[in-house]
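User: Show me sequence and structure for the first protein, then do the same for the second.

Assistant: Starting with the first protein.
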Amino acid sequence: MIEQLAGLFRGNPVFTFFVILGLGYLLGKLRVGPLSPGPVAGALFAGLLFGHFGFSMTPAVQAVGFALFIFSVGYQAGPRFFDVLRTDGLRYLLLAATVAVAGILTAVTVAGFLKFEPGTGAGVLAGGLTSSPTLAAAQDAVRGGRVALPEGWSAEQVVGIVATGYAITYIFGLAGLIMIIKLLPGLLGIDLAAEAARLEADQDDGRRFGEVGYRAYAVTNPGIPAMPIEELRARWDGFSWVRVRRGDEIHKARDLESLEMGDVVMAMGGVGFLTYLQVLGDDVTDQYLAKEPVETAQVVVTHRNAIGKTLRELAIPWQYGVYVEKMRRMNYAVPRTVDARLLSGDVLTVVGPTGNIDALGEHVGFVERDRPETDLVTFALGIAAGALVGTFSISIAGASIGLGSAGGLLVAGIVVGFLRSVRPTFGRLPEPARWLLMELGLLIFMMGVGLRAGADIVDTFQRAGPKLILGGICVTVVPVLAGYLVGRRLLKFNPALLFGAITGAMTSGASLAIVTRSAGSDVPALGYTGTYAFANVLLTIAGGLMIAFG
């Protein structure tokens, strides 16, 4: 039976490929206490299992996965990468650089002190930081011949060592980082929830959007008509004044200078804020105001005149008669306060009349409704361009210097993503499509890593397991501590924002989830998105540098 099953796997590579993929996803969903390894770790573990029993992956298949993943990372980071420099980007860049440099220096020190084999230090760096771009860049540098290998070592041997070092140290890098991020605030006497609340209060005076609701009020207060609508709006800006019925006529609220007795006002906004409008008069039901269709849509911020502005400055509820229900940045929820500052690529989920949403889209970017079209031409040619750029190099002092495939694909993705943010008709890649391509590419790449490392992992662990684990612990812990010290003492980050930024600098979405849960707020996500774009570039560069030293 076992022999027949083994024959089935060995004789049907397509079957085997998708079994490993499915098993990886299944393993990724398992929970150990509050921790779940996630699909990436699951794909790695499944690959290790099958690799241990002699299964392998065609290098071309892994290369395709690698290209899809790295390009998609750049595409996602493109809008944020350039615009972050216009706001608080220097601080985030310095923090991301601190974490990357601390990781490299720690890995180099550990590799020298523990006398690692060639390529092991690069694997430990990538595993300790759980950074797939670092791993990909290190292996690419070896395969591309951009580093001189010690005598007697082949490129394939070093690539295997990098993969094995990564696989062994990845476990603590994943679980250990989550543990550190969870425990460190308490050890330092930091209340993340209180710090997040303090930052939110400083930013918006406590005025926040809430769950959306609708109310109509008949104006019966004699004092209201004497006040300009602009003054009324300034008093209560937590909702949208959508329409006003005056007799048999329906008006947009922003087209009127003042209200009159007997007017019926339709407002939309946070349920808690809508109660303030009872000062107008009685809460009523008005069938005429409810006739205009209302929808929920996503508006993507791309226009220069909106980037860097707050929701209050844009007067979105008042000027456009729509309500901001959610706000996401790089696919992470961020606080949607009235003083939240917009950046390129931000996605606003808004509720309101269709015409009002379209008007808002024309002003700040474009409306992203449920459209399935994907610009595969731009996506494919972008990957091709990145791969081509990666082949170019220059010789300096006998060393070949170039971006390599990883760097070329990352740069191409950043450029295409940025152009997409300023030209909405260019390079359309809906979020579900981008997520699928990025996730599938990463899982294929990680399966290949696991299959390659699985053949040697038992022998390597028996020979050097304790040293690798020790090295991985150092590479995980030291950058976190360095990032905290620099972030608090030099860069003066709010602690809730800082811990989110540290997880972004280490590209760990799982750790961000821990921080946001501890803070009871989306504030840490602002820090995460601030460093993430820079971190992907810096950690990709780190992989190529580390392979030359470790």
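Switching to the second protein now.
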Amino acid sequence: MTKVISGESSCSSESDKTIFDYADFLDIKLASTCFRSGDCHECIVEVNSDTEVLSEKTDSEVFLPDGYRLACQAYVHSGEGEIRFEPLNRKPRILTSTVTNTEEEVLDPLVSVRDSKVFYGDLFVDRYRGGCYGLAIDLGTTTVVMELVDLESGLVCTSASVENPQSFGGSDVMSRISYSSRSDYFEELQKATVSAINRVTQKMCDEVGIRPPLIYEVVVVGNTTMRDILFGVDIQSIGQRPYKSKIETDFLEGKLTTTSITSLTRLIGIRANREARLYSLPLISSHVGADTLAAAWAAGMNQSKTTEMLVDIGTNTEVVLWHDGNIFVASCPAGPAFEGGLVTHGMRAYEGAVESLKLDSTGKVSDFSVIGDRDPLGFCGSGLVDLLSELRINRVIDEVGVFQENPKISEMKVFDDNDLIFSREDCSNLAQAKAANYCGQIILMRIAGVDPVDIENLHLAGAFANYVNLKNAIEIGLLPPVDLQRVNKIGNAALDGARQALKSQWARDEMERLISEVTHIELETIPEFFEIFVEGCLLKPMPKDVSIFDQSEERVVSGSTK
């Protein structure tokens, strides 16, 4: 009888099942967004087994070196032997840094110390115990990034990050909404998030030498789905037209005065002072959440007298455009292609991911770099942008992704000495993801009546944008053709905004007020959306004159919602 072991847990195998099946039995969470078909490449495990008790690798696993398998594809046969597997504790390269000068931030927190007492506003919450701290959290779909802040000095004591443990429910918000629709599954998503927050909080407290009861407020930002999961709000309405949170619907119906949320941390399960509050900045609209508001504020867009654009590229890309006192926002459903999904050898920014690449005139790799300085296992987003751009520059593929030397071939080997391939289907999936980003940027520029040359500051937020090669991103039309000197990589701007809301009542109030000035554009309501999307699928730069789509501002704005 085969014995299946992971860590200190084990069970016996009596019939053919996959490692994923045994992980379920052993209560070990593995990520998967392809319904265990082998397409998403997320359920990688490290395996040590007797060769006769494990099935041969499938075509979906050809990119993996010896000792690694996809849990959903590896069958454990009945018989005598032993198999040990461990989930890879790999974390994406997580960006914690921001560009804000903290010395210029206002220090006027809602939590204050007066007469040896701690107050939340004017409400007494505790006697002073030697410290007064708060947490700022950027609750992303992929990662959770946190800062522990001294509310008396305003200094950031420490920061930490962790991969969002909700990945077992899917890598994107729509997958998690679907996952939560099943009985009792919603609570699992919330519990996983709270457990991760508590684990990171304790780690930071230990580092600083304090205890969680000295934390009196937690400010969190995130997209609509992530935020509502944390607060225990039903998220099913976000996945159905008109794609609005229950909180937003209640606000629009006049039942609420704001889409921000405040709750006692103990009611959510977050470890802090018993009277501590959990606060979230308001939503913008639909899938555009508090994280976008925080990022736009941190970039100082609302105070600018110039034309500025902010782009935060991800599974859902957010685009913000500030022009002539107006602020427009759109969410672009790009999908997971630039995060490793739907690409044969795509992967997130783990160790082993090709992060940059250059080809010579013959289409051969002349230079590349890999996260962790090891043999390449696949391509992360920045590597895929480089690959697309280099293939176009060196005329290996045309603007629709057809291989020039032989249009009949469907794939190519990227490296001579390994099996990493790039196919026409990969190219098509990346082109469609790029086109979604393209649409959001083009449409907002058309609404504002500006061209790329008019953008005086292009702010790129988030980890993907921080590491992407700007020239290559512009070459394939992922970003507008803006002078590189006008591009600002602003890091984790959402966390920056959350920290400012934690430290300053004034900043919080201003962000609450700013919501009323934002116009949310529903891209699919724009008459030219399909035309722009099709154009965006071509691997070429954006036009310098967006009036080629010949759409009047009045007609476009009529498709927007405030």
